[in-house]
Structures are given as C-alpha cells and as structure tokens.
Amino acid sequence: MSKVGFTVVNGGSIVTPRGFTAGGLHCGLKNTDRNDIGAIRCEVEATAAAVYTTNVFQAAPLKVTRESLVDGRLQAVVVNSGNANACTGQQGERDAYAMRAAAARELGVAESNVAVASTGVIGEHLKMDRVLGGISSLPDRVNGESDGAEQFTQAILTTDLVKKEACVAVEVDGVTVHIAGAAKGSGMIHPNMATMLAFMTCDAAIGQAALHQLLKQATDNSFNMITVDGDTSTNDMLIAMASGLAGNRELDAGHPDWEAFAEAFTYICQELAKAIARDGEGATKLVEVSVSGAVSDASAQAIAKTVIGSSLVKSAVFGADANWGRIIAAVGRAGEPVNPDTVDIRLGDIIVLSQSSPVAFDEAEALSYLRGDTVRIIVDLHHGNGTATAWGCDLTYDYVRINAAYRT
C-alpha cells in the first residue's frame, strides 16, 4: 500500500528496521497467562528521544528513563504491564532502577542506555522477584523475528483487546529507511498524552535534536489528539529510537528528504493513536472529528478536542443518535473564536447543519451511518484557515463495567 512519499509495510513490526530485536514473556504480574514483561534491544547505541505524560504525579519509571536519556542515546527498553509502579514512593524508584540494572546486565548493554516503562494498577509495589525472574529469561526470547515482535506487543497490553503496530518504508538518499511502532492504550486516555505506552524504531541516521523536535510535532498531531475518557495517566511515555544503520546521510530539517521522512514518521504516530482510540475500553466505534475554517490550527485543535471529549457526543454516537446539537454545543464551549452564524456540520457525507441553520436529512440514512464502526464528524467554521483532526470512541455501558472493577 503506497502513501504520498512512503509505503505501508504490511506485516512489518518494530524489528523490521535494521538493528532491532524484541521479545516478551509472562512472568506472573498478571493473573492471566498473558505476557507481562518485554524488551526491545538495538545492536548499537541508538539516537533516542521521548515525550511523557503531563500528569504532575509521574511514575517511577519515567524518572529513570529521563535520566537514561540525558545524552540522547538508548540501546534497550524494558517494559512491564500489570503494575504501573506509580505513587509507590522511594521503594518504587528503587524497583525501577533495579529493573534498569537487571535489563542492562541480561541484555549486555550499558545501564545508562536502558529505558524503563511500566503500565497497570497505580499504588501497588512491583513483585520484584517475578519481575527480575522475567528479565533474566528475556535474552532467550529477544530476537529479530516476527515472533519476537509479537511477544513484545502482547507484553505491553493491559485492558487492550488488540495489539497496535504499524510500519512504513521511505526513500532517503536513495536507500530504504524503515520506521515502525508498537503501542498500548485503551483507557485513561486523554490529550496531552494518555494511559499509553508507545515505542518507535527506525534505522535512519538522524540527529538527536531533529528526532526530538519531530517526535514532539508528530505527537501534537497524533497522540495528543485522542481521547477515550478524559483522564490523563501517570505513566504515559513515547520513546523513539533510530539505529542509523540504513546508511543515509544524517537527517535534519534541511535534508532534501526530510519532508517525506517526517510525513512517514507522523503517519506511524497517527496510526497508533487511532488504534488506541478504536480500542477504547468498551468502545464499539472509532470517532474522528475534523475541524476546518478555524482562526488557527491551534484553535482548530482545541475545538476538535472538545468535541471528541464530550461525553454527550460520545453517548450520542454510541446510541446512533444524529443529535448534532451535542456537537454544536461542544464547539461553542471550546473557548475559541467562532462565528455563530457560519458553522457547517456533517456526519460523514450527511449535512445536518449549514451556516448554523438546521438541514432536513434522512434520519434512516443517518442511523445507518452512525451504526458503522467508524464515524466521521466534520465541522467547518468558515472563520479562518486553521484545521485539525482528533480521534476518540463512543461511550458505552461496558466502559463503566470495566472501570468499576479495574483494581478488584
């Protein structure tokens, strides 16, 4: 499948880029037999960058990872699911450092080149005997085959129903560069990061400053534009690693192939973000809100986020109710400049509001459209040139059921 400037690699994974291996296994942190610890390893020190949750209460692994990334280099990531190691005090920090030390030893890399990530229940100490036992078994599971990538993607899931991964190929300096990603996330998802972990691998040569800037920009147009339930977690983390083994000249914003590379990189982020939104806890539909005609892109982003985060909009979509009043109300309370006389709203191709006036539409057609598994809400403000797109899901009975007993 080809996109502008790049090609989607069906069946590709985080081990497709040159130099990367991965694996995972079940060590006993979860009550089920699903994998709960995994690792990614690069055969060389990789250029690396990360973005983190904006929650004031940040889990211990984030402190450790920030420390490892001071020099912008990583060679491995160790991840556990089933326990967030968040709000666990000094013991939690000691446990995160112990994970880093054990992974470095077992994977044969410098301790300062290991990132640590955790996801799961907040406020419970890790069962370190199980964690360390799992890490000691990782070297036998970490490999460059599709099975290794599969085991890793399974190891990072919590309430997720499906794995999230994507891979593309793009030409840089006449050589093929691969970019891939894997993520987890289903609940406690809200813009400005979410209960999500995401890991990107790439074999391009790229400067650390350029990678960090690109990661921030791509995040703003992907992971920071999704919501499931309006909650932002303590553990969110997105790490990107570039091995440089593709053989291209070092990328930066001045490189002639930068635009194509950045487009491909952003595509991976958006595909993972949409997969998280689609897999929202209890969700039955992916909802996409596109806003155009805003006074600026930032204004369009704020409006799109407000609409996608509205519990009333999400509930109406779940009920397949073409209640555009929920949408226009969310637009109006976003705190952004809007001309109340010039707004158009569509549900897919169905016009329900034109120049802020109701339009007669076929209710049966709207019902059929809203019963689909993807719902697009298009808002044109006719007030400027700003555009943005946000993604989310419907709000269902199952969301309450899942979260009413998440810990117990």
UniProtKB/TrEMBL annotation:
Residues marked Involved in the stabilization of negative charge on the oxyanion by the formation of the oxyanion hole (site): 119-120
Site (Cleavage): 194-195
Reaction equation(s) it catalyzes: N(2)-acetyl-L-ornithine + L-glutamate = N-acetyl-L-glutamate + L-ornithine; L-glutamate + acetyl-CoA = N-acetyl-L-glutamate + CoA + H(+)
A single GO molecular function term of this UniProt record: L-glutamate N-acetyltransferase activity
EC identifiers of the protein: 2.3.1.35, 2.3.1.1
Active-site residues from the entry: 195 (nucleophile)
EC supergroup of this enzyme: transferase
Alphabetized InterPro entries for the sequence: Arg_biosynth_ArgJ (IPR002813), ArgJ-like_dom_sf (IPR016117), ArgJ_beta_C (IPR042195)
Pathway given in the UniProt record: Amino-acid biosynthesis; L-arginine biosynthesis; N(2)-acetyl-L-ornithine from L-glutamate: step 1/4; Amino-acid biosynthesis; L-arginine biosynthesis; L-ornithine and N-acetyl-L-glutamate from L-glutamate and N(2)-acetyl-L-ornithine (cyclic): step 1/1
GO cellular component term of the entry, any: cytoplasm
Subunit text: Heterotetramer of two alpha and two beta chains.
NCBIfam families: ArgJ, PRK05388.1
Family under the similarity heading: Belongs to the ArgJ family.
HAMAP family: ArgJ
Function text: Catalyzes two activities which are involved in the cyclic version of arginine biosynthesis: the synthesis of N-acetylglutamate from glutamate and acetyl-CoA as the acetyl donor, and of ornithine by transacetylation between N(2)-acetylornithine and glutamate.
Name of the molecule in the record: Arginine biosynthesis bifunctional protein ArgJ
Gene name in the database record: argJ
